[in-house]
Amino acid sequence: MKLMLIGVLLFSLKAFAQSIIKVDGSSTVFPITEAVSEEFMKEKKNSVRITVGISGTGGGFKKFCRGETDVQNASRPIMKEEMKRCAEAGIKYYEIPVAYDAMTIAVSPQNNWVKDITVDDLKKMWEPSAQGKITRWNQVRNNWPDAPLKLFGAGSDSGTFDYFTEAIVGKAKSSRGDYTASEDDNTLVLGISQDKNALGYVPYAYYEKNKTRLKALAINGGAKAPKRGSILPSAKSVEDGTYFPLSRPIFIYISAKSTEKLEIKDFVKFYLKNGPKLIKEVDYVPLPARAYAQAEKNFNSQKIGTVFKGEPQVGIKIDKLLKMEAAH
Questions:
Q1: Which residues form the domain of 321?
Q2: What is the pLDDT of residues 72-116, one digit of tens each?
Q3: What are the C-alpha distances in Å from 128 to residues 122, 165, 296?
């Protein structure tokens, strides 16, 4: 009995001594932060525990700006309303771009009539006025079949939803509502893969993991695209800026107050040092080495805030992002 009590006491003391880092937000960034967190906890011999939730970028910022989390995964930059909310709560933060995503338009492999799609096609499908009206494939292009069009996409708390609607419809959060929505990208993968009449959008990493279950469509970005024609998502088309307009940077935000704890500082530095290798392993596109060096420099110099001024950014190339970060 005494030995049992001693064991329980030791376990309780160990749990009490263990530091906890709370992360939430984007399901897009989740695979990266999860991979980094696992390696960091191993290095710290489990003296630090990291919890990584998925409530979407918007849902995560609500928690972050209430001071409930230390780190925020974000698939888009912080918006003005969120900046205001954080300021009112006295939450200051570091903004760190960690990778690039090629948001992927996907259909089932059973779909044998579409290989590429234009931004105009997508707008016709997804704009608010399409609700209840554009319900069949041949209403988008008349050479497509007279079959039901079943759409799958991110939920309204998702940064992916914000970015997609800004890039395709022209206004963030402007979308038809009659589609299957989820902040969990695995749910979207399942829905798209099981229906030959389905079309949806998912982060690139979720497509890469499910290549046998999904078919990616090449995107024609129209007159604003840097290269004519239809471009498939890939590391190369992201790096050279030709996958337009669905190529985007993804981020982590760190609470400045949380960095008063040594384990948070260590985690951020570990993320910047080990992230590039792990980012490749989870099928996103790492930034150039100088980007992580610049991010660490900004972090060490305590350069808080965002370089994006709360404005949506569509189709921003890696070189431009690096210039913005260097000027921070």
A1: 18-99+248-326
A2: 999 999 999 999 999 999 999 999 999 999 999 999 999 999 999
A3: 12, 10, 42
